[in-house]
Amino acid sequence: MLTLVCPVCGAHGDETDFHAGGQAHIRRPASHDPEHISDQEQADYLFTRINPKGLHFERWRCDRGCGKWFHAARDTVTLEFKAYYGITELPPPDIMAQARGAWADYFKARQKAAAKAGAKS
Amino acid sequence: MQPRYSIFSLARNALNYHKDWERAWRSPAPKAEYDAIIIGAGGHGLATAYYLAKNHGITNVAVLEKGWLGGGNSGRNTTIIRSNYLQDPSIAIYELSRSLYEDLSQDFNYNVMFSPRGVLMLCQTEHELRAFKRTAHANKLAGLDCRMVSPQEAKEILPILNIDPQCRYPVLGAYYQPRGGTGRHDAVCWGYARGADQRGVDIIQNCEVTGIMRDGARVTGVETTRGPIKAKKIGVVTAGHVTTIMDMAGVRMPIESQCLQALVSEPIKPIIDCVVMANTVHGYMSQSDKGDLVIGGGTDSYNNYSQRGSFPALEHTIAALVETFPILSRLKLMRMWGGIVDMTGDRSPIISKTPVDGLFVNCGWGTGGFKSIPGSGWVFADTIANDRPHPIAEAFGLNRFAEGRFIDESVAAAVAH
Asked: Is the pTM of this model over 0.90?
């Protein structure tokens, strides 16, 4: 059984006290660029998922505590939670560095986009 | 060629104290090149290899397996066989599969213990009753032998059923498929393995695929723990690990891997001679020939590769079944296990070509893999052999997600996963 800690209210509980909300950090492409969304991009947004054997990043909800959504980094093989972080945040840098495959590509792209936005301003 | 199994071979070997039985399949070293490689020696992979050899004469085939054959979900399911799905494409493939099971033992010369003992699906809310009536009409149009039965008839089929209208989820009716049932999961894998091996297919166990070799947009072979193996056609049939393999080829999949648990009770005298499924309360059950009750439930809600499920999911399943079958309340459970199932968004499988030439994928069977082994292998072998989707497989292409042609079976699953 999974045991979690809510990073918002600090409640401890098992998986029945929380709700698993699936993969984290999914952006709805139509919100940013509604005119240029291909069918494939929309299908990827709805259905294509990062499904790693190992470190994964997910959304969870503190069902029986504060009711807030938050993010968690969890290993899908050992089922161990590695970190909890806010719903608007990226994972802690040391955890992000451990990401592999599609997740590593994703975080690299996010950081690049953030650096570009920073350079502009 | 291996000798056929018969009453005479049994008698002959009995005289020798069974010391002279030959191995049912070889254990060959991998060759440098094959016409086709199937990744994954579970039921679906072995069936694909078998029908490639038998139906299409393609025998220069290797089936690569990182563990032992039939050691994944093929050995971790509840062996239920039925075809009463809602959508036409699903009915077509699951009924092909169920009908192939009917004479699979004769086809193999190997007993797969197919037992068409009937599948009874309980309706425990008004909505479920209506949904199953809809399925019943769809199935009748497709020519399936299925019918709705009243609570009293359900009680006649299954005397241990609690049809008290006062219980939390009263039985309002049931949907019955008399030619559904169970089979012996190991024997299905072994039968396909033996049949494929006899026709020249190399089944290579303890051989993990570590990479997929490409030449531009074409596959050229695989890297394995036993060295590189070349092939122009590769079929990926690795269920819960399909994204791991497809990532090697750079193809993203609409799949999430979750844990589905099953459990068996201590063996008891016969109390149930059909398969019973209770969708609303999340549980399904049959009794094996040994006498133990084989019980399954819903998946855990989060991604999981550990083959260990959670206690709350088990508790939920058991609580529901005890309510519906009060006779079970004192029963001890012997073992439980989890399998890593590959879930798609519409709960229907993917049998498809991919953006990479020569790379084919058969996955997404999720919680309904065992029942579909023969049909899945049949159409996937045809798809690989002819390099185009088999007519039945066509609807299950990867492109359906972008085109919006979903085959929504989430309501037709035995339990709401």
From this structure: yes
